[in-house]
Design a protein that fits this description.
The complex is a heterodimer of chains A (336) and B (293). Chain A is mainly alpha-helical. Chain A has 14 helices and 2 strands, in the order αααααββααααααααα. In chain A, strand 1 and strand 2 (155-156) form a beta hairpin. Chain A starts with 6 loop residues before the first helix and ends with a helix. Chain B is mainly α and 293 residues long. In chain B, strands 1-2 form a two-stranded antiparallel sheet. Classes of the chains: A mainly alpha (336), B mainly alpha (293). The A-B interface holds A 53, 57, 59, 105-107, 109-110, 112-114, 116-118, 121-122, 124-125, 128-129, 131-132, 245-246, 249, 252, 256, 285-286, 288-289, 291-296, 299-300, 303, 335-336 and B 33, 39, 88, 91-92, 95-97, 99-101, 103-105, 107-116, 118-119, 222, 225, 229, 232-233, 236, 267-271, 273-274, 277-278, 281-282, 285.
Amino acid sequence: MKIEIRQELIIFLAMYLVLLILPLFLYKDAYVIGILITCMVWGAMASVWNFTMGYAGIFTFGQFGFFVVAAYTSGMVTKYLGISPWLGILIGGLMAAVVGVLIGLPCMKLKGAYIALITFALHLVVAPMIKVADPLGTGGSTGLMSIPKLSLGAYTFSRTDLIPWYYTALVISFLVLLVVYKTIFSSVGLGFIGLRDSEDFAKTLGINEYKYKLLVFGLSAFLTGIMGGFYAHYAGIISPRLLGLDIFLLVMLMMIIGGMGIFPGAFLGGFIILFLNEFLRPLEAYRFLIFGAIVIVAIKLMPEGILGHLNIFKNRMGKRLLGRAAEVETTRGQNI
Amino acid sequence: MNIWVQQIIQVIISGIVTASAYAIMGIGLSVIYGISRVFNFAYGSFFTWGAYFAWILFATFSWMNYPLVFLIVVPAMFFLGMGTEKVVVRSLRWRKNWQVTTMMVTLGLAFLMDNLALVIFGGFAKPLPPLFHGAINPFGFTLSVQDLAMLIIAVTVMIAFGLFLSKTRIGRCMQAISQDMTGAEIVGIPIKKVFSYTFGLSTALVGTGGILLAPRYFITPHGGWAPFFRVFVIVAFGGLGSIRGTLYAAFILAIFESFVSWSLGATWVMPFWFLVFLGVLAFRPSGLMGTWG
């Protein structure tokens, strides 16, 4: 079997190699380690979002809804039922997948703009739902507190030592991204891209639109849910404030800056945006003003994102290095 | 009279009054989608800014009154909207997948505007003086003059807008574009100019809604999202691009909303809107009347 080496895979693995050895130099700096963990969580989530939006061409704004549903599910089953947090994360992911498929069902008949609106409506409605469900133990608007920590054998993770958290986040986000990567470059992924670029033609070739769309909704919700579950146990406290539009904007920016429809772009964008966020923190209220402006400027001036521009570079130089694979990729990696 | 009947009629009246404000905002959102196919996520922010402009006028000039506020703020909102269309939206239109790109851009714009409001005005809620004081009691119901004025202003705006669409040249250009964009372009309608006017008109409408609703609620930097979501459900329920559908939907849903909030409490209002929305999309995605009406 011939193994194809793609630009996407190289960037992806290189990023994880760097992440793998980074704690060797930074293990004393809990602040930076903490940021890197959030980078991995949100970066992976942005990548899944990019998978639905950039590759499958389904314009969902509901990823945060899935994230929070899974975080609450995982937090509540482990807190009240005493289930192992690892299992809780999985249950959270499955719950998110169920919600994803339920949201996906009415989206079957709809086109781009409407899907964006219905999923955005999901985003807006989860927070009031959590507040209404306070008697069930969601903690209402103050949030769900003292969620059990992860543990491995006899060792329980704690907030004083972030390195185990770091490597767990690394492994989980790596697996999530690997699933995304594998799906994009499988026959299923080709089906998505076919539907995205030429829906009617893809349908005439026998691609089942419903099946693929539901699969995208379910899978992306599940993967987002896994990150959400992990986040709940890592943070120890989750509240409806996670659905605030500021975090939404940040994750959307990760995708825009990294490059929509270009595989590890959103993950890379995660690191850029979150470090920029820390850098701009002293500006307080002006910070989100600036981020809002960045969205507008980035879309207008750099519609393909950072990796998109690297791709243009690749067209000229990299063809010789990567051979035929590069040609295939330039048609695939195009912006949506 | 039976106390229950009286309460229920009171709830219906309050629903009708809110509906009239929702209706003009809904028409604005519907028009901009129906004509220029842009979905404007910054709509709620324009709502907030309309109210803030009115607040600035009231705070700076002690002799300010409402007719003058409308006279100044509504044209200001119109030009703000036109400028936004020119600077932010226009160049994206001929790109691949521009509808989603414009959604993201307007979402960015919404953040920019909201946080600008936060930086300038601070997080505290700002009040607007009531439109009118006092109340009247026809047949034993209480109806504040403010609500009555709101209803009258909103209905006037709606009628004026209907006349504008059917009688003026630019209004008919808008209708033509909403029916067939390519056809309109072929017969020489300056579509770019009409898009700009449409954007301006829709922000002027939402600004009017903002000023009308602000005396009932307070103005906060992020306060535009809740009305935006409601208006958006109304427009989806009525059928994106259909003005008549929007009108019906506004009245039906606002009356339901006021019943929900009266019988179940305010926390159920948002879930109610979402359920309506899901129902609409599941059973009739094109809304009540999904064409230009």
